[in-house]
Every structure is written in structure tokens, then in C-alpha cells.
Amino acid sequence: MLITILANITVATIILTLLAFAISVMIKQGKEESCASCSTKKRSACKGCQFADKCH
Amino acid sequence: MHMTMDELTVGQTGAVKAINAPKQLKRRLMDMGFTKGVGVEVVKMAPMGDPMEVTVRGYHLCLRKAEASVIELR
Amino acid sequence: MQTLALIGNPNCGKTTLFNLLTGTSAYVGNWPGVTVEKKEGMTNGHRILDLPGIYSLSPYSPEEKLSRRYILDEQPDLIIDVIDATNLERSLYLTNQLAELGRPLLLVLNMEDLLEKEGITIDAKRLSQMTGAPVVQISASKGTGIEALQAQIEKSLSEKKLPLCPLFSNFVERYISEIIGDDYLHQIPKGRQMRWAAIKLIEADELFLSSMPAPPPAFKTYIEKARKELEAHFEDDPEAIIIDQRYKVAEHIAKDCQIKKKTKKGFEFDSIATHRFAAIPLFLAIMAGVFYLSIGLVGGYTTPLLEELFAFLGEQVHLIADRFGVFPLLSGILADGIIAGVGAVLTFVPQLFVLFLLLSILEDCGYMARIAFIMDRMMRTLGLSGKSIIPLVIGTGCSVPAIMSSRTIEHQKQRELTVIVTPFIPCGAKMPVFALMLTYFFPGKWFIAPMIYLLGIVAVVVTGLLARALDRHKETNAFILELPRYQLPSPRNTWLQTRERTLGFIQKAGTIILLSSVIIYLLSSYSFTLQAVDAEQSMLAMLGKLIAPIFAPLGFGFWQASVALLTGIAAKESIVSTLSVTIGTANLGALFTSDSALSYMTFILLSSPCIAAISAMFKELGSKRKLLYAVLWQTGFAYLAALLVRLIVLLTL
Asked: Would you tell me how many other CB atoms lie within 10 Å of the CB of residue C339?
């Protein structure tokens, strides 16, 4: 009984983790392709500038 | 008798005398280095005889015969 | 924060340098015009811009206008002029124009390694003396000289030293100094150089004149007089005189700084690549080789192996889950949703990796411009330009960069037509569908795969001919293209590009495909009353059945096929994962027949591309109406072609 509950929780966790990962990557990607990717880090490039007239 | 660049055959050379084209095309060709007196050489023709490949100022450029015909040589 | 602007001739290595300075991997290729828009980044805490490659600051072409406007309006703190050292004269022609803009200038001599091979040496010290700008020698492709460059950037930024303006012949200089002496010149916008303004007045530069208040009549007559006198003296128009003068200065500097040795000519690949008879067969053979290597050789081995692996994984999940009494819903999502859906896409990673690798080598070695050269005559009869072939070749990898690369085509109609036909060439993401269908229905019939590409080409030809027939003006335009030197692809660049494209594919599998697989699985397992039901009664089936009748004439009027097409709008790889979740890759024969499989493939090949490509199309076409026409044409053409293919198959088999 306990094993079944644990097994269910495990599978559910795996699925939720995968989904959460997928969504977070998609959000990150969306940001990268917008002006939000313009950072002031020492060495970086802005992908958003390819799609917008001006980011800064 | 005016000779134009499209009349050159492969291996022939010439020197630019004038460019007889509308402002925009003339500027474009001159920007690419076709100024008065500069030497040009026809390197090859494309498989169907057009466009042509020429060297000007030490680099290779391809242009159609229609554009080459506005470049007058001496 | 200070701003740096990278500028230089097309194909001189600006983007490679940009990548080195910013630590990123923007798209690089060895054909003129890869950077079609500016890119921004950070280096050492300074903002850096990669501007499109230009030959001049003329007011005519869009890229040149963009770069010119940028430098004039934004007033960057330092202009970094990248000079192709093997093309010194033409590069210095642009440098001469940049020097007049009144901004600090730094010259970067690139491609030092090629220089040695060509037997040319450049006296950097002399060049620096003559231009009044610091000179740094680098090799962007090898990554050498970057530290020295970074040090010089800091130095130039703090010194703020202006370069020397090129001096023209006395006859021209006399007019320039007289114009500068007039009060009118004090009205030029802040930051502009008087000398620059005077030259623009002599040239009668449209962009400059429109930015200035009307000159007083007396001054206007003086300018007119000066222009007339120059014209009479040089027997040419003033704009041409200035270009001529600039090139004279460039010649003079180049002659003084450059020592040419005699070079020996090696084997010339070009003599075959552009050979009268061999060129086009060679091009076809190279493309066939690319596909044979990636899809046939590599894909043939790896795809079945990976398929088995994912099938095994799915079975194991079911077995283990059953043993521990996991809900069928949960184990179903994991095994039949995620593993089946994502797995179906991931099986294509090895062959796409090889395809991306080979395409990147083709782009890097300088062959692309030659293809444009040899194909121009043929493309012109289709209302396209020789440059249209570049997007079509890149489109075999992915339509998005392909559509963006069409921007180098000068003529608007040809550019738009190229944008519309590029998605007809099957991209890497459509390949999984074809591979799935072909291995299931036509095992061993290798000749069908090339036919798909051929069909894509036919669609391009038909669209082109039709557009040409409808176009009343039949205008032709200039086709002027620099043919870059052949070079060995840089391993670094090839690797970066291949890795980025392959990772992009894997990332799509892990994100949008994963999500849609789970959603498709849930929708296909439950009814609208949320009862676990057979797929036939599921929500997905109900939705699919609404559109399925449209496709009945094409032979795939069942809901699974329609739903797969819908998910394909998000990403074409989804079609395979949807089919594998709803039908199962092993049961395709239960619904498809060989004729409907062929018409299905045809429809997918030609119908409107994925959402990313559609938005790229929108960006390039620039109007919603044109985009709508384009998508309607693609989809309508796909429908008719699929119908035709099916009829032919039914009648002949």
C-alpha cells in the first residue's frame, strides 16, 4: 500500500518536474528573444535586438 | 566606337572610362570600385553566359551583363 | 556606459569579431550580407553594436542608410572599422568616409593569416600614420590579437582622438574650404563635422539636404556654381567626383602600406565549381551528397536504434508502474505521452546534427556565393534573383534563418517572392514526418525521398513562373555580388553553429513537444465529461472530426491526421509526436494507405510553415495582408498538390 502511494507520488513528481522544466525553459527562451535579454554583464549579447528596433 | 564591359570575353581586360547609368546604379558601381581608369578583367562567365565574374581592385565581383553594359571602357 | 560600433565591408569578419568580444555565437557565414540587421552586445562593460556590412555610406541602399543613420544619430564613442586586409583599397574607401564623421576611429586589420598565404604584408605603423587612427592586427577566425584590440579600445575611448580626414585634390579642396567658411555651415546639427557637411553639399546628398534648413539664396547659387565648375573640370557629376577622389586617397594609402609579393596559384576548386557544364551538376551532386550523408547514411543507422531505445523505455515504465500499482493515467502520461512524443522527435537528432554540420561547412567555405552566381540566369526566369538560392539552400536546415537571409536581395518583389517560396523547401523539422512515413509504407524505395525535395523545387518553380506571369512590369534589377575567397571553414565557427542549431532542435523537443505531447495524450484519453474513454470518443477526436472532412478528398479524413497537422503549426516535429501518441508509430497502416501517406506528406511539405517561420515571414514581408496571401497560397497550393499526387498514385498503381 505504502509502496503504491510512493510509486504514484514518484511518477507524478517526475511528470511535474518535466513539465515545470519545459515551461521554465520556454519562458526563459521567450525572454531571450525579447529585449529582456539585454544585460549589462561584462560580456554578453542581446538576442532581442535582432527583433526590435532598439532595446536600450 | 564605345566599348562596354559586357563585350569583353573571358581573359580580356580593360580600363573604366565612364559609367552611363542612373544615379543609383552608378553610385553603387562606383562604390564597388569602378572609378575612372581602374583596370578590370573578365574572369569567367556563368554556365548560361550571364552573369559574369570580373576582378576589380583585386577582388572578385559578379554582375549581370545588363549592369556590365553601362560600364564604358577605353 | 560607452558605445562602440563595429563597421566594415560585408564578409570582412565583423560578426566573428563581435562573437569573440561578447563571448556569444551569433550566426556567421562566408557570403556577403549575413548580418542583415544590427546586433547589440556588451564587451568589457561597453555597449557594442554589430552593424550590417556596407561598402559605402551612400544614401541609397537600406543597410547603408541604417549604418549611416546610426553613426550620425547615436554618435558612438568609438567606431571600430574592420578592414579585410586582403582587400585593402576597397576597405579604405569606406574608412575614408568614416573618418569624416567626427568620431574616434579604430582600424582593425583582419584576416592576417590569409594575408600571409597571399604573399601580402601591410605596414600597420604606416597605415596608422596616414589615417591618423590606431591600427590593431587580428585574426578573427583564429581569435588572435583580441587582447591587444581590447587594450586599444580602452585607450582610444579615453584619448578620444579624431582621425585625419582624407585630403582631395587642390581643385576640390578649394571649394570645400570656401563652403566651410560660410555661416550657413554653422547650422549643421551638433556633432557633425563641417568638412563632412561641405562634401555633402557638393554631392547634393538627398538625406543631408532634407535634414538642413533651406540655404540663403546667395549661398545656394554659390553651391550651384561650384558644382558646375567641378563638373566642367572633371567631366563627371559631383557625386562621382567625390567617390573618385576618395578612391584615389585609398589607392594612395594602400600603395604606400602594402607590399605585394608574387603568389603561386594552387589548385582552383573554382574552375570546376563555376565550370560551364560541370557547375550545375556539381551543385546538385553536393546537395544530394549532403542529404545522403545525413539522412541516408547516418539517419539509416541511428534512427531505428533510437526508436527501439524509446520503445523499450516506454515498455519498462509501463511494466514497473504496473508492478507497483501506479495509476494508468500517470504511467500513461509518462510512457505514452512524454516518452513516445519526445522520443519520436529525438530519434532524428543524429541525422540533423550531420545535416546542420554539412550546411554550416557549405556556408562557411564560400561556395554559397558561387551557387548564386551559377544559378542567377535560371532563377531570373522564375522572377527570382541568384541570391534567392541562398535562402533555399539554408532552408533545408531551417526556414527561419533562411527567410531572414533573403534580406540581401535588393529588389523588393524578388525578395518577397523568395520569402514566400522558401518554406516550400522541406526544413529539418519536416524530415521526421517523411522518414516515418517512408520507412513504414515504402521500405527500400529510396528514390521517393529525393522526389520530395524535387516536389518542393517544383512548387518554387510554379510559384515563380506564376508570379512572373502576373507581374506586368517585368522589371529587372541590379545583381551585384562580391564573390568571397574560398576558405577552410573554421572549426570553431562550424562547431558553434552546428551545436546551436542542434541544441535548438533538442530544446524544442524538451519544451513545446513535451508540453504538447502531454496535452495531446490527455485530450485523447478523456471525453468532454472527463471520463477515461477510448481514443475514438475523446475530446481530441471530437475536435479533430470537425476539421477532418476537409481532408477527406486527400485520403486522410480521419481526426488523428488533422490533429497532427494542427499541432504542426506550433512546430513541425509535433506532427510525428502527435501521430505516435494518437495512432502509434507501429500502427500507421491501420489508418493510412500508401496513397494517403503520399498525399499527407505532400500537404505537410507545401502547406504553411511553423509559427516561428510565419513570424519571420511577417517580419520580412512587413504587411499582414501580404502574409495572409502568402500563407493562403502555400496552403491552397499544398491542398491541390496533395490532391493531384493522390490522384496520380490512385490512377497509376
From this structure: 23
Domains of chain C: 3-159 (3.40.50.300), 170-260 (1.10.287.1770), 279-472+498-652 (no CATH)
Model ipTM value: 0.95
Contact in structure between C7 and C479 (CB atoms under 8 Å): no
Residues of C in contact with A20 (CB under 8 A): none
Contacts of C330 in chain A (CB under 8 A): 8, 11-12, 15
Burial bucket for residue A44 (CB in 10 Å: 0-12, 13-18, 19+): middle
- Residue C234 Cα distances to B57, C269, C382, C595, angstroms: 22, 43, 42, 72
DSSP for residue C426:
P
Task: Report the gap between the CA of B61 and the closest CA in chain C (Å).
Answer: 4
Whether residue C132 has pLDDT greater than 70? yes
Task: Choose among C42, C510, C511: nearest Cβ to A44.
Answer: C42
Q: Smallest CA–CA separation between A25 and chain C, in Å?
A: 7
Whether the per-residue pLDDT at A53 is higher than 60: the answer is: no
The number of CA neighbours under 13 Å toward the Cβ of C420 is: 30
Q: To the nearest whole angstrom, how far is the Cα of C346 from the nearest Cα of chain A?
A: 15
Whether residue C274 and residue B25 make contact (CB cut-off 8 A), yes or no, is: no
Q: What's the domain range around B49?
A: 3-73
Across the interface, do A26 and C326 touch by the CB < 8 Å criterion? no
In DSSP terms, which residues pair with C480 in a beta bridge? B63
Measure the CA–CA gap between A9 and A4, rounded to whole angstroms: 9
C507 → closest Cβ in A23, A25, A56: A25
Test the C interface: residue of B48, B53, B55 with most C CBs within 10 Å:
B48
Q: Which residue has the cell 513541425?
A: C572
Half-sphere exposure in the Cβ direction for C322 (13 Å, CA): 7
**For residue range C9-24, what is the model confidence (pLDDT) as tens digits?**
988 888 888 888 887 7
Put simply, whether C60 touches B (Cβ < 8 Å) is: yes
Residues of A in contact with C18 (CB under 8 A): 45
Which range marks the domain in which residue A12 is found?
2-50
Residue C636: CB atoms within 10 A of its CB come to: 13
Put the strands of the sheet holding B13-19 in their side by side order: B3-4, B71-73, B13-19, B39-45, B52-56, B59-63, C480-483
Q: What nine digits make up the cell of C127? A: 597605415
pLDDT of residue C207: 85
Say yes or no for a CB contact (<8 Å) between C326 and A45: no
Is the preceding peptide bond at B22 cis, omega within 30 degrees of 0?
no
Residues of chain A in contact with residue C326, where contact means CB-CB under 8 angstroms, are 4, 7-8, 11
Q: How many domains does chain B have?
A: 1
Nearest CB among B38, B49, B63 relative to C479 is that of B63
Closest CA to C32 of C55, C11, C18, C14: C11
Q: For residue C58, give the nearest of B27, B44, B66 by CB distance.
A: B27
Q: Which three cell numbers stand for residue C109?
A: 586589420
Which CATH number is B40's domain given? 2.30.30.90
Kindly state whether residue A56 falls inside one of the protein's structural domains.
no
Tens-digit pLDDT profile for residues C304-340: 899 899 999 999 999 999 999 888 889 999 998 899 8
Q: What are phi and psi of C119, to 5 degrees?
A: 75, 30
Q: Can you tell me the distance from the alpha carbon of B32 to that of C56, in angstroms, rounded to the nearest whole number? A: 8
